Amino acid sequence: MPTSPEPIPLLSATGLVKVFHAGGRAVRAVDGVDLSLAAGEVLGVVGESGSGKSTLARLVLRLTEPSAGRIAFDGRDITALDGEAMRRLRRDMQIVFQNPHSALNGRRTVGEAVAEPLRVQGVARGAALDARVDRLLDQVSLPRAFRHRYPHELSGGQKQRVCIARALALEPRFLVLDEPTSALDVSVQAQILDVLGELRRELSLTYLFISHNLAVVRYLCDRVMVMREGRVVEQGPVAALFAAPAEAYTRTLLDSVPRLPRP
Amino acid sequence: MSALLAIEDYHLAIPTFDGPARVLNGIDLALEEGETLGIVGESGCGKTVLARTILGIGPDRAERKQGRILFEGRDVADLSARDWRGIRGVKIAMIFQDPMTYLNPLFTIGRQLGDAIAAHARAEGQARPGRAARRVRAATLLDQVGLREPERVLDYYPHQLSGGMRQRVLIALALSGKPRLLIADEPTTALDVTVQAQVLRLLRDLVETLGLTVVMISHDVGAIAALTGRVAVMYAGNVVEEGPTARVLARPLHPYTQGLLAALPEIDGAIRRLSGVPGTIPSLIDPPPGCRFHPRCPRATALCAAERPAMRGADPAHRVACHHADLA
Ligand SMILES: Nc1ncnc2c1ncn2[C@@H]1O[C@H](COP(=O)(O)OP(=O)(O)OP(=O)(O)O)[C@@H](O)[C@H]1O
Ligand SMILES: Nc1ncnc2c1ncn2[C@@H]1O[C@H](COP(=O)(O)OP(=O)(O)OP(=O)(O)O)[C@@H](O)[C@H]1O
Ligand SMILES: [Mg+2]
Ligand SMILES: [Mg+2]
Q: By its UniProt entry, which InterPro entries does this protein fall under (chain B) (predicted)?
């Protein structure tokens, strides 16, 4: 990890471990991970299914309690933070979960779901709130009329976009995206990636970006971390790492990307 | 030869707060036994609704306006709940987009797979396999979909699995019987590329050895290219292009298909700004007249706003619904 005279990282974690008990055994889902993200940086996380990516995401946001390790946000140790202090911090740290289908409350309309964080944090009310919700729906390419819809009336990709709009609502400083574009077709995906890129340029937003789509990782991320069995097996600048992967596993991953017939 | 599945001029509307959404707008598709059809198209264009409608589990209150869907020559609208019991999950297996909805959170994976295996044995008039036999078969299925340590996964509850593990359990469930038709909605998108390749190989094997017929919906054009022989491109409730997969990808005729493929970020090649197709899909409640794509189309003319283009093609195997497609 670079511990240079660089500015303090926005988010850093050291020695993160998470042990689960399942099927009568202990699973070390995350097994000693260090990471550090500078403000405005996009760190990609790739790795095989079950390698601990989603668990890592939940750990750094304190949605899952670590078995060991420390997490710091903006120079402050948040490992033991609880209650009110953590709630205030939530405004700055948001997540788009891997499964949009269970992430939304089936009894709330799209409009209510997107407005909720703004209302709870007291950011906007009345007409200003409505205007903000409209803008968020525009950003994720959803028709404004969808504010009246319930989740079961949406397609998979539409639900995923509601989750993205909800996560962007408070203009957080740090956003974890767990497979955020997996349910999106390429053209909507391109629009969302553009929005994420813009927010990063304008607001210096910092992302932890988990994806199986290596082409998307290459497009959006500065650095990438390759995970396997709870550990980081390789990391580096995305272009360099994809051009010359040192680990056999990373090579297999890159070689398995299906190539398209091109004219 | 009669088709295993035939969808004929199918129109479907769903009532919403703002009025009826015309979600399927005259779909025509047919599949022979052993064929593999890919369906691609923008988020919200009707792929999942179509898949569920084929299985008789479309959205509540959805209304068929016109057309029919035939499976083994029978109109699915005429099937009773009893008929469906021998078809859904038996002759037609499905892999859904949202795995959690189809796994029971209270039972282990082993129990759920075991129950499915027993049900299939019953459907084929065989004796109920014993507990040990069910467990062995279940572990084999998990192994086939690339889950490591399948024995252990059998004792997991759904919430203890990662996203990709869950999706593979669903694939294993779908393949636990001997389906004639598999409808797979985004089966590989939550999987890393190595596992994805393995799952696609498994499906290809089943197509080749058992003559399994597959409809695969996916945003992942790479996966579509790897598995399917034919592809249908949907836009706002219509099929706008259909043809041999390799041909359509290499030489797309519809401006929408062309935009879709141009928006693909590539793993090698220069990093460029993703162009995409500008704009968003139209409202299905008040869709544009004529060609539903015309407001976003770089080639649109007055004709496009006035008249819905019919499917046509210089080659009957590769057809497109566009007034201005270059068919030469
Ligand atoms: N609540 C839990 N209880 C027990 N085990 C769990 C739990 N959550 C995750 N695990 C286990 O931890 C490991 C890592 O899971 P995780 O969801 O972090 O993987 P992932 O890298 O996100 O995979 P995917 O790409 O499939 O989403 C898996 O072996 C999983 O079975
Ligand atoms: N129950 C419902 N009530 C009203 N509208 C619905 C309902 N279900 C789906 N829709 C609408 O029908 C359209 C098609 O939905 P569908 O789920 O088939 O899309 P899709 O092509 O599968 O998209 P995705 O790729 O995002 O999964 C969408 O615009 C959606 O909002
Ligand atoms: Mg995950
Ligand atoms: Mg869908």
A: AAA+_ATPase, ABC_Ni/Peptide_Import, ABC_transporter-like_ATP-bd, ABC_transporter-like_CS, Oligopep_ABC_C, P-loop_NTPase
